[in-house]
Design a protein that fits this description.
2 domains, Alpha-Beta Plaits, 17 strands, four-stranded antiparallel sheet, 7 helices, four-stranded mixed sheet, 278 residues, Immunoglobulin-like, 35% strand, alpha+beta
Length: 278
């Protein structure tokens, strides 16, 4: 049995909004019974784009996170619905019945990912369906079709030879908020670009006032440590970090080593760090 899923590569998303526009074009003033009523022109984001901006001037990292319905296998909206108004198909797609769900505003609040919207005109909660009407005709979802960068990869999670399965096997793709225990069918590559922190800095040689290239930067946390080298601008970066206490040590031949303690609560840019001759 096919189990549809989606892998989203955050680094490939450039916020072109083609996915959003394609979704709007597919559903605005278009009905696809028995799965969806038409989407209103404004106020609904079945494929939303969340912008993440980390760091501070002059060291800033920006990433974009496409957020559709997660098609949860343990969907809170199903548990919240009355009269079987929300159901999960055999292929894993969660559907809000456009007739049975009328008036059930509680479904909007039931979704922890905020991907259910209320259509005031139709008196109906609505969301992404992975374009199930297109799947039944052998077509792929419109957002996948419209993505110019390959950020959105769609396929059968139960087929080991599918592209989504191969990506999940070879990368550290993860679900958004696993602690919610909803078992999403949407996975993210490089999710840490949105959900975690980095420590970065720029190293300068004090005697020459030049960017310090190829300096060894060591990040220590508890009993673990990782190393990196500064680039030709003197920059180093450690990404994908959780909050906690870290130590950054900088070492270069002929210069006195320098250590900096960081109590990381949010992304931290340490600014220019000067290494002086030993």
């Amino acid at each position: 049995m096919t189990r549809w899923g989606l892998v989203i590569d955050i680094l490939k998303c450039n916020a072109c909004y083609c996915c959003f526009i394609a979704c709007k074009d597919e559903y605005w003033e278009n009905e696809y019974p028995p799965y969806t009523a038409s989407q209103p022109r404004h106020g609904q984001f079945w494929m939303n784009l969340v912008k993440s901006e980390r760091g501070k001037y002059p060291y800033i990292k920006v990433a974009y996170m496409p957020v559709p319905c997660m098609q949860c296998q343990e969907a809170p909206c199903i548990k919240s619905a009355e009269n079987g108004a929300v159901y999960k198909r055999d292929d894993g797609i969660v559907v809000i019945d456009p007739e049975k769900a009328k008036g059930q505003r509680q479904l909007v609040q039931s979704c922890p990912y905020n991907t259910i919207f209320y259509n005031e005109e139709s008196n109906l909660p609505q969301k992404c369906t992975f374009c199930v009407h297109r799947l039944e005709e052998g077509e792929i979802p419109r957002c996948i079709q419209a993505c110019p960068t390959g950020s959105l990869i769609f396929g059968d999670l139960d087929d080991p030879d599918s592209e989504v399965s191969r990506i999940l096997e070879k990368t550290s793709a993860e679900v958004y908020h696993p602690e919610w225990e909803t078992a999403p069918s949407v996975y993210y590559v490089d999710l840490h670009k949105v959900t975690r922190h980095f420590i970065a800095g720029t190293v300068v040689y004090g005697d020459t006032d030049e960017c310090a290239e190829d300096v060894t930067a060591t990040l220590s946390h508890d009993i673990k440590s990782v190393k990196a080298k500064t680039n030709n601008y003197g920059d180093f970066e450690f990404d994908g970090l959780n909050a906690g206490k870290y130590t950054v040590t900088l070492e270069a031949a002929g210069y006195a080593a320098k250590s900096i303690d960081v109590d990381l609560k949010a992304t931290e840019y340490l600014g220019s760090i000067v290494l002086n001759k030993a």
